[in-house]
Amino acid sequence: MNTIEMLFIIGNFICLIGTLLLMRRVLKNRNMLKDFDPLGSLLTFIPLVIFMVGYVLWHNGLATGFAAVTMVFWLVVSIFSIKGWLTKKGKNSKNIPKMVNENEVVDKNGKT
Fold first, then answer.
1. Radius of gyration, alpha carbons of the chain
2. Are 57 and 6 in contact (CB under 8 A)?
3. Which segments in the chain show pLDDT lower than 70?
4. 3-class DSSP state for residue 74?
5. Is the dihedral of CA 73, 75, 78, 84 positive or negative?
6. What is the DSSP letter of 31?
């Protein structure tokens, strides 16, 4: 095992510890997932997938194992944050009046 592989293993082990601490906090208070930014979560998950492909191609088993837990956690966080964002966006769009044509506005009861 060379120095670069060892650095990746150490880095992924540190990420694993951070993920486990964050996971413990999220499991205590699941409402915390609502505060995660969907784009930030997704932009964290996508590079983890790319790194994981590299570790598998490199045959670095320890780095792959450590990174798998972190990748799955961020996948779940991304799914829940995007789901929450879409739900919030759907609730906000119900309050916007619908335009029938340029001069008519439909209210909540469907009357013009």
1. 21
2. no
3. 93-112
4. helix
5. negative
6. G
